[in-house]
Amino acid sequence: MTLSYSKTINYLYSLQRHGIKLGLENIRRLMTALAEPHRRFRSVQIAGTNGKGSTAAMIAAVLEAAGYRTGLYTSPHLIDFTERIRVNGGPIPPDEAARLTERLRAAVADLPLTFFEFTTAMAFQYFADSGVDFVVAEAGMGGRYDATNILTPLVSVITNIDFDHQAYLGDTLEMIATEKAGIIKPGIPVVTAADRPEALNVIRDVSRERNAPLYRVGAEVRVAGVSPQRFRYEGIQRSFADLNCALLGRHQLLNAACALPALELLGRQEADIGEASIRRGLKTVRWEGRLEIVSPADSGPTVILDGAHNPAGARTLRVFLEESRPSRPGRLILVLGILRDKDIDGILAELVPLADEMVVTRPQHERASTTEDLKRRLERYPARVTVREPVSEAVRYARSAAGTEDRICVTGSLYTIGEARSYLKGSAQPSTLRG
User: Which CATH number fits the domain that encloses residue 304?
Assistant: First the structure.
């Protein structure tokens, strides 16, 4: 008898007791038990510190626009687990998630799988069962020992390298780059937007060792922005003028500069991707919770949702907030909820100087920083600080305190964004299972 979806979610949540284990032995055993579903589709694998999800969403949107049945695997989810596993934009049906959970449990009942290993296997089995043409897979953390690294993709993408997850990946850019560069396979072309010399040198060396052609944004590939969302692309062999990307923020130019050469390289091998598909895919791509503007239904203040969770992401958000400031700006109210194992002070240093008021909160996650800790760290800044829990109450308060010309920005973690988005959209509370 198949578990209900709610019991399925409870079971998946229970796998978090195994924590994070870097290595491919378990996922390989599971794939073998399932008759290797990951070999039944073509793929693109994406690693990097920031921009992985946006880049993946762009590639998937263009492949779908070109008529290909496309799987997209990303993490974490914002509201519901099924968001992680999508085919042509549609999330895995809850009953399929339940059925596959039972199938995977039966396949390797004695294997102590982590949550991410299990869900990666579920995704690949679902994609194979669904007959997809391509899968775009975002690495969860690092790359070398990430569960997605059992794939042999047609193209590998490393968006950028910056500091994050140092406890697992190392505390230097060289160490972090070594983990990310672990997705580079012999002979498989690589695209990267990494520009820090310490990181780029590692990627270059690994690519050379593995005879993997390397295409660098800013060298073999270039973009020039007419405006943050309109740009020209000079690629490996193709060039396009006046492209229009639906995703907000100047940083999306770099993500597009990773997605487009990856699509070019797919076109050389296995795909027929015309200019019309590229334009349509970029123009229609959606990626929730990343510089997402929620338009008020009651002429209230504009709410901006962005899951910036490290200093590099906060820096990108700061640039957007500065560049998009209205000609007659009102106040900026920041709603912040951050995990305690992140560089909290680095995030605050980027964003708090822009704010007129701070609302600190705590998402429903075991690693979330307490509001007391956040408030203490904010004592050095002049902005007013208000404490509200849970996230829904923090957003409600910010909206009540803001005037119609003010802006509210909710940020600090995708977990915070998921709860805020659920509240603003009137959805059910997001699952606490977000790993």
Answer: 3.90.190.20
